[in-house]
Design goal:
alpha/beta; 18 helices; 6-stranded mixed β-sheet; Rossmann fold; 26% strand; 2 domains; binds magnesium ion
Length: 510
């Protein structure tokens, strides 16, 4: 009687995995039906990646059994798992930059040498696979020239080319913009319609609910439950993940102040030969006020922050901080006037990943009298300050002397937010302050932002998380095509309403 085995692609039973000092997985069980999209959700550190790495043969479990397509398996390495039809796309891509897409896909999967003929055959097969899965990418482009979304497609093709019928994707959407997320899920749908099985890890509950056939929740290294998306909602799923009631961004304890902290007047940035990047943007942010900016990425939000900071030349208009016109001032002067910045890309702009935490929290504040001792840096004070940020923002780390790359994404973000808030700024430009962080870290960042706002901080909040915008903001502006096209009261705004304006819908003037 093997009918069960025919329908079950993967069964994990009682999986245990210890690392020195850590029980990463304890008695985890999971059943994935063939031809379905199965989501695994859980907070950072819950043990999701460990479980999937074990299924992929990267670790051997200390306990439990792995059954694939009805056969019990003891994978010694990923090549065993690949031979059993399993493929994995890791959180961090593993492509060779100086090769083309085609070369990357066939790299390591060619039996002998890369003759002209075998390359031609490979090209044809890859084209077939790409067409069947609706995955479009230029096979002759060098990988170095590809964006993140395209690199991910290459990784997926690579895995399919090796014959995988069970695909594991570890947080595939963490690095993608919304449009790319839609494309990825369309591809995954194609694949399951074609009989493949997808296991994907995520902590973005909305997307999990939208695309999964089944959802397994993992908490503290063990399985909590497997549910059908129709039986839960976002709040319920979040509660299962954290084992407590889900925090919400909403909550208001202070009143918007009267003093204007930031005033933009007719700010315009031209792109040579193109349409305007910022087009006549005017608004103010008051003391104790969070002004949210909603918009599809690429509609001028990034340039708006850069213009406020003086990082990009503006064509016309003015920027005022408090009573001072800083339009002609340097970035340094503007920062000294009290502007802090949580940048769009924490890896590229916010943190130095190979530097230690205390060096990272010192970053950009080296001139602060507090951290100077004559011509030298007061390292003792810098260490102390970092430790304080770690404590206050609940950054999970053994100490302040580990490199930033050793921290999970959520903890890196908490450190960054902590650094920017501990500057005691007057104005905070916060771009996606909780992007890619888990629910616990998100709640902590929300709480700190709200506390700082209540204490007088003026915040310009840019976020793709519409619930976050509605929950935190005192006023929401929509940016479309470089212009502010709508102003909404968060008490009345819904995500759907914002979505309409974000894609070009016009606001009716009452
Ligand atoms: N190779 C490893 N060595 C030691 N500890 C590890 C290793 N991989 C993961 N861990 C630890 O195991 C726990 C679970 O991690 P992980 O599976 O990466 O969680 P998740 O993917 O859910 O964020 C964490 O405490 C993590 O620090
Ligand atoms: Mg992980």
């Amino acid at each position: 009687m093997n009918t069960e085995g025919n329908q079950i692609a993967v069964a994990l039973d009682g999986i245990g995995k210890r690392f020195p000092g850590v029980i990463a997985n304890h008695d985890v069980s999971l059943t994935v039906r063939r031809g379905t999209i199965h989501a695994i959700v859980g907070e950072n550190g819950a043990g999701k990646s460990t479980l999937m790495n074990t299924l992929y043969g990267m670790h051997q479990p200390d306990a439990g059994t792995i059954t694939v397509n009805g056969n019990v398996q003891h994978f010694k390495s990923p090549s065993d798992a690949i031979a059993a039809g399993i493929g994995m796309v890791h959180q961090h891509f593993m492509l060779a930059d100086n090769f083309t897409v085609l070369e990357n896909i066939i790299l390591g999967a060619e039996p002998t040498h890369l003759g002209v003929l075998s390359k031609g055959v490979a090209r044809q097969r890859i084209t077939e696979i790409a067409t069947a899965s609706g995955t479009h990418v230029d096979l002759d482009a060098p990988v170095s020239q590809l964006g993140v979304g395209q690199r991910q497609r290459v990784e997926i093709l690579k895995v399919l080319y090796r014959g995988a019928r069970i695909l594991i994707l570890d947080e595939p959407t963490a690095v993608l913009v919304p449009q790319e997320v839609d494309e990825l899920f369309a591809t995954l749908r194609h694949l399951v319609d074609d009989g493949a099985t997808i296991i994907f890890i995520s902590h973005k509950l909305d997307e999990v609910l939208a695309v999964s056939d089944e959802i397994t929740v993992i908490r503290d290294g063990t399985t909590v439950v497997t549910v059908l998306p129709r039986d839960v909602d976002r709040a319920k799923l979040g509660e299962l993940m954290v084992g407590a009631e889900l925090p919400s961004p909403a909550g208001r304890e202070s009143e918007v102040g009267a003093a204007v902290r930031l005033q933009l007047t007719a700010l315009t940035v031209d792109a040579p030969g193109q349409r305007k990047i910022l087009d006549d943007v005017s608004f103010t942010v008051h003391e104790s006020e969070i002004v949210g900016i909603a918009g599809v990425e690429g509609n001028g939000q990034f340039e708006l922050c850069e213009a406020i900071l003086g990082l990009t030349p503006i064509t016309s208009g003015t920027v005022e901080i408090g009573d001072h016109d800083v339009t002609q001032s340097s970035t340094r002067e503007r920062k000294q006037a009290g502007v802090s910045y949580i940048p769009f890309d924490r890896h590229r702009e916010g943190l130095m990943l190979t530097s230690q935490l205390w060096e990272n929290t010192l970053l950009g504040r080296e001139d602060d009298a507090r951290f100077m001792r004559g011509p030298l840096i007061n390292t003792a004070e810098a260490h102390r300050d970092c430790t304080e940020i770690i404590e206050r923002f609940d950054v999970l780390t053994p100490s302040e002397v580990v490199p930033a790359f050793a921290l999970s994404g959520g903890n890196q973000q908490k450190l960054l937010v902590g650094r920017e808030l501990s500057n005691r700024p007057k104005i905070l430009l916060a771009a996606h302050p909780t992007r890619g962080v888990d629910i616990g870290a998100q709640a902590a960042i929300w709480a700190e932002l709200r506390k700082a706002r209540d204490a007088g901080l003026a915040v310009l909040l840019i976020s793709a998380d519409l619930d976050e915008l509605i929950g935190l903001s005192d006023r929401i502006l929509v940016m479309y095509d470089g212009k502010i096209t709508a102003t909404l009261d968060p008490a009345e705004a819904t995500p759907k309403m914002l979505g309409t304006f974000m894609t070009g819908g016009k606001q009716e003037v009452a």
